[in-house]
Amino acid sequence: MASSSLAYLEASPEMGSSSTQTSRQYEQDCHILHCYFSGNGAISNQKLVQIFVNRDSNMLKLVRQTYSARYGQDLLQLMSDVQRNNSLARIAYLRMVEPHERDAQMIRHSLFGGSLNLNIIIEVACTRPSSELLRIKHAYQSRYNSDLEKDLTMRVNGGFKEILLAVLKSCRNYGCKADMSLAMCDAKTLYEAMESGKNIDQKTITSVLSQRNNGQVRAILSSYKQLYGHEFGKSIKRSKCGQFGKELRVVIRCIQHPEKFFAKQLRMKNADGREILIRTVVTRSGIDIKAINKAFVAKTGSSLENLVIREFNNSKDKTNDLVVGILVGLIKG
């Protein structure tokens, strides 16, 4: 596959001179990466940063293929072996791996990599488009020979289990534009589920979430506010909603305002703060990293660029200048 892709880039007459130029660019990128990871030859830090900032996922896939054809090595495997203790390798790996494969691996590790990490599961399930979520589930099945929904059922308890299972099931309904008439009906259904009894109707709420993709859920939440004058999230703050309400609010907030969810994660002080920073910047670059930065500034008075500099400038690691350059470049877009 790698060799045939490379040959196509070099030889296809339809591609012309621009194809040749593109092929040379990938070969240059591979040379820089090979010099860096092998330790043979001096390289320009700026050029290395540009590879991970300026290439999109399709370009990086072709860089991987070209590297494999030229050097007989898998770049992902090279970076995977050292990414746990090397921030630059971690960034490079997250940028190089295909997004649905990356997310499948992240969920697997959050379920079985030690202690359960619900934040990563919520992050992936609630912020990825439904079409991408379907690809993630297929990648998970293919890579681990296991069903994601069954694994989540086994590892997650309480309201989060039912809520997240509903969100994962909803991705089957991808591809449709938001139906505002249906959203109005569903908003009324949610209101009845909240108000009709002494306790909220959890079954009806999870049923709505399981039948509507994330885009449609956002339309429902907008309709809810339009009809009743306040956010659905405010309704589930009340004591009658109990623990289920608290857990539902986390998921709803992430679907409705992903930038606020990520900004909150970045503000929290915990042991894996550096990993959260790297993961957020890399996975949300080109999507909503600017909105996340704005939400972060609104709460802290300081930018994500400053957070990156503070996090990586207090170490003697020689690769930190590269790490800062890549992350700041991705934030600025």
TrEMBL record:
Top-level taxonomic group: Eukaryota
InterPro entries: Annexin, Annexin_repeat, Annexin_sf, AnnexinD_plant
Alphabetized UniProt keyword annotations: Annexin, Calcium, Calcium/phospholipid-binding, Metal-binding, Repeat
Binding site for Ca(2+): F37, G39, G41, E311
Keyword Calcium: yes
A biological-process GO annotation: response to stress
Region of interest (Disordered), ranges: 1-23
Keyword Nucleotide-binding: no
GO terms assigned for molecular function: calcium ion binding; calcium-dependent phospholipid binding
PANTHER family attached to this UniProt entry: ANNEXIN (PTHR10502), OS09G0368850 PROTEIN (PTHR10502:SF207)
Protein's recorded name: Annexin D2
Species the sequence originates in: Theobroma cacao
